[in-house]
Design goal:
The chain is mainly alpha-helical. It folds into two domains: 134 residues, no CATH class; 101 residues, Receptor-associated Protein, CATH 1.20.81. 85% of the residues lie in helices and 0% in strands. It is built from ten helices and no strands. Helix 2 crosses helix 3, helix 4 runs antiparallel to helix 5 and helix 6 packs antiparallel against helix 7. The protein is elongated.
Length: 243
């Protein structure tokens, strides 16, 4: 099977080059996906943390004591970062530890919340009410973000699968049925042109999907791989049907 694939790609150096760059691009494309999943997990857990802090302060605890209680309760990524923050606060000021906590999460939501909490403390604002309002606001925001991700994610996957996989196989089937090589048709230049067309179409599809999801730069790593897949599926599909 492997030797058949290599034989098939012998006259297709563009596909081999794109596959090479695509495999290398995997090592650049996976870390942003992992980082984003980590950040979204933290942000989805943020409203529950704010609500728990507000409840603890309503029970008469101070902010630092409320955060310690939340660190003991929360077993997720946010709780682990909070425990580290409380340990560091013993060697520095509490405000510095909060700023460090926000930086470690690498989340704009958490950083904004920590800034608002610091401002509320400086201005002697009712912190419990502030935390309750923040919890409700960010719960609604994350619900909207998750819904948008679910709606657009399905559309983006459909675009990529159709343009990069479905369309090349469909055209390969049509060409293989009506212009098979075993019937004497010489289509070498035709195949080269169409494979390049499908490679370019795949790049556009991946770029559009990344733009839809707001992750265009992260999707650039996957352009060579999907382009090579589209080109290979067209050539392999034709060879399987009309070759």
């Amino acid at each position: 099977m492997l030797f058949q694939m290599l034989e098939l790609l012998r006259d297709q150096p563009a596909i081999l080059v794109l596959f090479t760059f695509g495999l290398a691009g995997i090592f650049g494309g996976i870390p942003p996906m992992v980082e984003r999943a980590r950040r979204r997990k933290i942000e989805n857990d943020l409203p529950a943390m704010l609500e728990a802090l507000a409840d603890s302060m309503g029970a008469g605890l101070g902010l630092q004591q409320a955060m310690q209680a939340e660190a003991d309760r929360n077993t997720g990524v946010l709780g682990e970062l909070l425990r580290q923050t409380l340990v560091e606060s013993k060697a520095s000021s509490f405000d510095a530890a909060l700023a460090n906590f926000a930086a470690k999460t690498r989340s704009s939501q958490v950083q904004r919340v920590m800034n608002l909490m610091s401002t509320a403390i400086e201005q002697d604002a009712p912190l419990q009410q502030v935390l309750n309002n923040l919890a409700m606001d960010y719960e609604r925001l994350n619900d909207l973000m998750n819904q948008r991700e679910a709606d657009l994610g399905g559309s983006a996957i459909m675009i990529i699968m159709f343009i990069c996989c479905g369309l090349p196989l469909l055209i390969a089937f049509i060409v293989g049925q009506f212009a098979a090589a075993k019937q004497g048709f010489q289509l070498a230049s035709f195949h080269k042109t169409f494979s390049l067309f499908f490679g370019a179409s795949a790049m556009v599809a991946v770029g559009v999907s990344g733009r839809m999801l707001g992750r265009f730069k992260d999707m650039l790593w996957w352009l060579p791989l999907w382009s090579a897949v589209a080109m290979f599926l067209y050539i392999a599909g034709y060879e399987a049907i009309g070759g």
